[in-house]
């Protein structure tokens, strides 16, 4: 969800920076890029993504442990 | 299902598409501007959903011949996760439509068809809830699934192409092909699609293994 909101904000920022015309007249998020703020965006999204992945891995390990317990019980 | 290699691959691919999705340059197109980067998120959601629904219908067919409960569990957990990806696809699409088409739901044939397909699969879950007896539930929902899948394919891929549509790839619009998506975009897009498909399967496999444990396998 945060990714989507961030993407939407990116589009909005582009609209607000419409005074700065690039060479082929299509406005892009060049200000965000030149100021280095784009890396903050990437870092935020990536941190959230990593957090979710760690959560998935812990669930996976928990299930594996339960499966092994089940297997050992019946052996 | 318990091996980790493809899960790590999924994480690497999606992580790469997240970072590259923001940093790698994209074609500068009017109307879209930076939102073209949504290609790396919106479309993989749908790919993951279709893959999951396809696996679901395969296991529904398998259940009808084998009568093994685990085939039915696979079918339902695929739909459960597929619906989540469907919701993400709809949400990302609506956000994108809002900034590019000026309307989150412009009553476009593709969007309306996707809404109907979503309702069909939600109805699958409601149907399962309505039947108490396990084997009857599995059988009835398997038959429903076998009908729902081709209808979904027609709704999403055939019907919108036969008429006027705003959506890329339908109604005479080019899909994001050589006109819009150049090599640099494909370099992020294809890994994103594969990564999210693997993520969908991972989440489904977790749910499925949990259901097996619950059953006391």
What would you note in describing this structure?
The complex is a heterodimer of chains A (75) and B (217). With 75 residues, chain A is an all-alpha fold. Chain A has one domain (2-74). Helix content of chain A is 77%, strand content 0%. Helix content of chain B is 73%, strand content 0%. Chain B has helices spanning 5-23, 39-66, 69-100, 109-130, 134-158, 183-215. The radius of gyration of chain B is 19 Å and the shape is globular. The mean pLDDT of chain B is 91.
Explain briefly what this protein structure is.
The complex is a heterodimer of chains A (75) and B (217). With 75 residues, chain A is an all-alpha fold.
List the helices and strands and how they pair.
The complex is a heterodimer of chains A (75) and B (217).
Chain A: H1 2-16, H2 30-34, H3 37-74
Chain B: H1 5-23, H2 39-66, H3 69-100, H4 109-130, H5 134-158, H6 183-215
Helix pairs in contact in B: 1-6, 2-3, 2-5, 2-6, 3-4, 3-6, 4-5
Number of continuous helical runs of chain B: 6
Query: Helix count of chain A?
Result: 3
| Helix-strand topology string of chain B | HHHHHH
Sequence of secondary-structure elements of chain A? HHH
How many domains, in number, for the residues of chain A? 1
Helical amount of chain A: over 70%
Distance between the termini of chain B: 16 Å
Oligomer: heterodimer
Question: Helix content range of the residues of chain B, please?
Answer: over 70%
What class, by secondary structure content of chain B? mainly alpha
Work out the largest interface and the residue count of each chain: A-B, 33 and 31 residues
Shape of chain B: globular
The pLDDT mean of chain A sits at 80
Global geometry of chain A: rod-shaped
Largest sheet composition of chain B: none
Which descriptors apply to this entry?
heterodimer; A: 75 residues; mainly alpha; 3 helices; rod-shaped; B: 217 residues; 73% helix
